């Protein structure tokens, strides 16, 4: 596979500074390309669809994204309602008793959760914060390393382009000098040919006399 050749040394070329009208045209072209380009780069991964397999979480994400208010909690299922009729049927009392049992079990679970939180919550939160701080430090370190690598790459590119630019400028100057020398030699040859032709004519005239 042949290597690509880029005929550009942005760190060395100063055409845009020399010719302001050229810089304006470049800016217009860049703006036009950015406006026309609506497709993402092939290396950009496709968008991730969150909670594709969970309809409830997906609906909640859409609700939060659209800034819709959170639906009110259904407090009826937490109330201890007695049978609506007096004295009440056996089925109504059985339903009320089951509801009371469920409410009691729910309160027991809440008490257990509060006790667990008081016993282990503080340490769990400290561990969670420690992990977050460690992850943040690793991310910041990776970011600094990436910035340093970027600066080093740009510095190396600048030094390489400055070195190659000076070589190109020297070669271009030498090429200009050689072209000028060739033109001078050609002009001298033309002058010599004209002089030789003049002398030949003069010799022919003398020979006739």
UniProtKB/TrEMBL annotation:
Pfam families: BCAS2
InterPro entries the UniProt entry points to: SPF27
This protein's GO CC annotations: catalytic step 2 spliceosome; precatalytic spliceosome; Prp19 complex
Principal cellular location given in the protein's record: nucleus
Keywords, alphabetical: Coiled coil, mRNA processing, mRNA splicing, Nucleus, Spliceosome
Compartments, as annotated in UniProt: Nucleus
Lineage: superkingdom: Eukaryota
GO biological process: mRNA processing; RNA splicing
Coiled coil start-end: 129-209
Record family assignment: Belongs to the SPF27 family.
UniProt protein name: Pre-mRNA-splicing factor SPF27
Organism of this sequence: Hebeloma cylindrosporum
Classification lineage: Eukaryota, Fungi, Dikarya, Basidiomycota, Agaricomycotina
């Amino acid at each position: 596979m042949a290597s690509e050749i880029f005929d550009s040394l942005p760190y060395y070329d100063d055409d845009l500074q020399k010719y302001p009208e050229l810089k304006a045209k470049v800016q217009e072209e860049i703006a036009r390309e950015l406006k026309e380009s609506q497709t993402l780069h092939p290396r950009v991964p496709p968008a991730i669809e969150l909670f594709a397999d969970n309809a409830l979480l997906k609906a909640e994400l859409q609700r939060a994204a659209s800034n819709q208010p959170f639906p009110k909690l259904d407090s009826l299922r937490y109330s201890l309602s007695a049978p609506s009729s007096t004295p009440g049927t056996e089925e109504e009392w059985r339903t009320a008793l089951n509801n009371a049992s469920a409410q009691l079990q729910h309160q027991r679970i809440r008490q257990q959760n509060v006790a667990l939180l008081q016993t282990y919550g503080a340490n769990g939160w400290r561990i969670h914060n420690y992990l977050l701080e460690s992850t943040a430090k690793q991310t910041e370190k990776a970011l600094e390393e990436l910035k340093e690598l970027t600066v080093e790459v740009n510095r190396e590119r600048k030094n390489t382009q400055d070195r190659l630019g000076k070589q190109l400028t020297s070669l271009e100057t030498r090429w200009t000098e050689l072209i000028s020398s060739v033109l001078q030699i050609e002009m001298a040859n033309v002058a010599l040919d004209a002089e030789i032709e003049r002398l030949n004519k003069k010799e022919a005239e003398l020979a006739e006399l």
